[in-house]
Amino acid sequence: MSDIVLEAGAGVRDEAAGRRRFRLARHSLLLAGRSLTKTRRNPGLLGDAVFVPIVFLLLFVYLFGGAVAGSTREYLQYVFPGVLVMTMLLVGMLSTGLSINTDIKKGVFDRFRSLPIGRSAPLTGIVLGDLIRYVLAAAVLFATGYLLGFRVETDAPSAVAAAALATALGFAMGWINVLIGVLIKEEVVVQTVAFLGIFPLAFGTDMVVPADTLPGWLQAWVRVNPVSDAVEASRGLLTGGPVAGAATMTLLWSAGFLAVFCPLAVYAYRRRS
């Protein structure tokens, strides 16, 4: 009899745990819908996702194209994959943390705490809702690149895979800025820290020029920079070349960033709550 009772109790606990996990996912998706609704009512919030890829692609192609490659068309084929990765990083790291910081200052998260929802659901919901920025930024970048003359030299599935890989890294590293947005109270400081953190990662690669033309100390940074693997993988997927090793490292880096900074952001948010 006691064995039957213990088994029944274990079953109830497992069922309750499953309901809690499902409830957290459901609440996160509902709050992601709130984020999308806010974006739909204020399309200006998507300005960075629209203008960042256009500005950087035009800047790099027409400022460095002739000097580096002798031809803007050839340089466009070289620099486009790197700009794709950098755009996904910037869109993720600049918008999400600032949005969370703004909601906390306005007291929105105080209202969330009075609701019967998971403590981490507001953070997860905002991050999931911001995925629309990645999709829009990738679409704008590919459209701009096509108008300027960029052509995918592989195939359509490879191009989608390149965008997905860059998005995965941007999404994972976006949790760094989520943590910053929770810990720091001032919006301006959040933006400043995000910019200072993103530029060594985004520009410390062979995105703009080949790595062998860089100083030795900078080449050493390029070799250990996780963004370099994403640039190499995207370049292989879009214009041909080795992909497997760099793509695997990018996925591992993405999983590592997510495994470290997502729990830290949730913990900091709970402490602040």
TrEMBL record:
GO terms for biological process: response to antibiotic. Its main location: membrane. The keyword Cell membrane applies. One of its GO terms (molecular function) is ABC-type transporter activity. It is found in: Cell membrane; Membrane. Keywords: Antibiotic resistance, Cell membrane, Membrane, Transmembrane, Transmembrane helix, Transport. GO terms for cellular component: ATP-binding cassette (ABC) transporter complex. Belongs to the ABC-2 integral membrane protein family. This is Transport permease protein. It comes from Actinomadura hallensis.
